[in-house]
Every structure is written in C-alpha cells, then in structure tokens.
Amino acid sequence: MRTFFTLILIVVLSILFTGGAVHAETRTGYVSDMLILTFRQGPGPSYPVLETLESNTPLTILGEENGYFNVQLSSGETGWVDKQFVMFDPPKTKIIEQLEQKIQGLEKQLQDLTAANETLKSRLTSETSAGQKATASLKAALEEAQKKNNLLTEQLAASQKQYADLAAKSEDVVAVMEKNKILEAQNKQLSRDIAQLEEQSGQVFKTGMIKWFLAGFGVIFFGWLLGQSVSSRKKKKSSLLS
C-alpha cells in the first residue's frame, strides 16, 4: 500500500514538473557555434548546471519548455539547454567532418577500384598474352593440319590413279586370262584333233601299204604267171616244130 502511494506521488510530481512542457517530435539538433553551452537540470537559468557542452555536440530533442529544449546526449543523459543556442542544420564542422569521412571512404573505394583495375589489367594482359600464344599455337597446328591434309589429298589422288590403272590392268589381265583359257581349250582340242588325225593317218598309212604291197605282189605274181605261161607256150611250139 505504501509503495502504491509512493508511485502516485512520483507521477504527480512528474506532471507538475513538466506540466508546462510542450512535447515535440523527436529530432536531432546541434549546439551552435559557440564555446560552451550549459546543460542544466531544468528549463531555466536557475537550475543547476550538470555540465557544459561543446560546439557541434549532437542533441536529441525530447521536448520544449520556457525557451529550453529537453535533450538527450549520446551518452543517454537527459537535461535542458537554451533553445536559442541549438541549431538543426548540421554545423559546418560536422559537414566538413562528414565530407572528410565521405572523401576518405571514396578515396578508399578509389584505391580499391584502382587496385582491382590494376589486377584486371594484369589479368587481361596475362590472358591476352596467353590468348595470343594459344592463337599462335592453334594457327601453327592449323597450318600443320593443312599441310597434312594437302599431303593426304595428294596421296589419295595418287592412290586413286594407281587404283584406276590397276583396275584397267586387271581388266586387261582378266581378258587375257579368259583369252588364254579359250586358246588353251582350243589348243587342247587341236591336240586331241591332231592325235586323232595322227591315229587315223597311221591307220590309213598301214592300210595303203598293205594295199600297195598286195597290188605289187599281185602284179609280180601275175607277171610270173604270165612268164610261165609264155615260156610253156614257147616250149610247146618248139616241140611241135621238131
């Protein structure tokens, strides 16, 4: 119960303390270009100074009362500052700092890009050199292949001519062989005919010899008989005359 009343008392005091305050949308401001700005416990010069803020210190605006801003520092501490010394445009030093940071980032990017560009140039040079070597190698291989192709073409033409000549000669050889076979067959037939004729001639010769022998023998025998007859007649005439 006592805790409950304590919480109510705290809420009431907070309302009374900030009753005249006008809450604005949270935004960021900066201490204007001056040496120092008092950071007070309440919205007025009578409140104790918590600390002093340097120029360009960023402030998160939480509210406004009696010409003072209720602000929060980057450390998380809250207090009040005179609003006339707060500006919402980034100070030149802050802008310069941001620009310097941006320039440094851009320079870093430029260095990285330059290094990457040099790497790409080196790689491109290397790849170009390798490509040129590969192209030269391929060109040499192509020329060698072309030479071999020409040589094979010549060899093929010579082989085709040789084949044609051999084919023609083969046809002649076949024709000669066929003719030789015919002549050989004719020769065999002639040999058989000659043998047959010789056999027939031998038989005819033998028959003719026999005939001539018999004819000659007959003539001789007839002449002998005729001579014997004539001789007999002469003897008879002589005996008659005697």
Care to describe what's here?
There is one protein chain. The chain has two domains: 4-89, SH3 type barrels (Roll); 90-200. With 242 residues, it is an alpha+beta fold. The longest helix is centred in the C-terminal third of the chain and has 150 residues, at 92-241. 69% of the residues lie in helices and 15% in strands. The chain has helices at 2-17, 92-241, and strands spanning 27-31, 36-40, 49-54, 58-65, 68-72, 78-82, 86-87. It contains two helices and seven strands.
Summarize the structure.
The protein has 242 residues and is an alpha+beta fold.
The percentage of residues in β strands lies in: 5-15%
Q: Uncertain spans, ≥5 residues at pLDDT below 50?
A: 15-24
Backbone structural class: alpha+beta
Number of helices: 2
- How many distinct domains? 2
Mean pLDDT: 76
Separation, N- and C-terminal Cα atoms: 234 Å
SSE succession: HEEEEEEEH
Helix content: 55-70%
Q: How many strand units?
A: 7
Write the layout of secondary structure elements.
Layout: H1 2-17, E1 27-31, E2 36-40, E3 49-54, E4 58-65, E5 68-72, E6 78-82, E7 86-87, H2 92-241
Antiparallel strand pairs: 1-4, 1-7, 2-3, 4-5, 5-6
Keywords:
242 residues, alpha+beta, SH3 type barrels, 5-stranded antiparallel beta sheet, two-stranded antiparallel ribbon, 7 strands, rod-shaped
